Amino acid sequence: MYTQALNTLDPQAAAEDSVLEARFQARIDAEEKIEPNDWMPAAYRRTLVRQISQHAHSEIIGMQPEGNWITRAPSLRRKAALLAKVQDEGGHGMYLYAAAETLGVSREELVEQLLSGKAKYSSIFNYPTLNWADIGAIGWLVDGAAIMNQIPLCRCSYGPYARAMIRVCKEESFHQRQGYELMLTLCRGTPEQKAMAQDALNRWWWPSLMMFGPSDTESVHSGQTMVWKIKRFSNDELRQKFIDATVPQGHFLGLTFPDPDLAFNETTGHWEHGEIDWSEFARVVAGDGPCNRQRLAAKRKAEADGAWVREAALAHADKRRQRQAAAWRVAAE
Amino acid sequence: MTEKKMPLWEVFIRSRNGLAHQHCGSIHAPDAEMALIAARDVYTRRGEGLSIWVVPSAAIVASDPADKDMLFEPTASKVYRHPTFYEIPDEVGHM
Fold first, then answer.
1. Which domain of life is it from (chain B) (predicted)?
2. Nearest residue of B to residue A35 by CA position?
């Protein structure tokens, strides 16, 4: 309903913009939520569309690395949990697309931006899931990192995004717990199973740290989004929180982190990490990660394969509507 | 994209018997029947609901945020509409 009554940009109104912007910022400062039909600066709208749709695309592409293992889950319990998790991710994508649509973009445009490669999704989903332990590592690390990012988003200044994030966070906690439990089971199993868990941690640790985005000194979008209260914490702050929470969990599993510089600083009370390979991050974001082409190709194929179903469903709905109308005409005559 | 746009529906869910349906989000679907199925899959994966309504988004008439003050502000001064406005002696007991 929100998409139909959007503010259209009126050139005459440009002069009033500074007044409107000041009023808008005052509402944000007072922790008021901005709703779809409220006035907002064009840049705020653009930023939100970019961020929310990127978030939605990540959920949708994120179904692929895990979906890969549904048929090979080692037990019915694990299979049911993985199915539910992948289904949740589809659902999260839907909540988020709906939130983005309240800003005046259509679902079709958003999907098109993903398929054409114009819109980005989280770099993490361009890494392959090579063994079953990867499913545990994704739940524990990737979903753990996502939760760190998403909990502050529940207080984001844009109402529909904040509400979508509340639903997502409620459901996401099961994802992390099932992943950690899977890792724990492997670590308490045979030496081979524990080695699988260690191998998964070795491969997923650094990409998980990169999920928080560039360091604060490099991040182009951070400053303004903090003023607008879209973001509440900087990339580095969130990354630090994640490391502090996760390292003791890894040690409990009896695993080691693939970072020789990882050390606890007694004075600050934080875990300090070694240098992140930002050139790898830049490569993956630019489309040259291990699975970028595969992920997009799979999504394009799914979209193309489903086109006839959407067309048929719309044609069927049209036909039924026409028949109904004809029946009413006959009844009236 | 040349594809025809999928209609938008607003989803309302009644969480427990006796409570009103509450708006929880929106979905795209070609018709009402499929809208109900999609709403069930997207919004009730954990026993959130006992009943679902779907309404074509285009059928909703909303108040204009610009009229907010005109519509809702006048009630702020009408304190006599609240029970606490009236003083009843303690001896009378709970009322």
1. Bacteria
2. B65
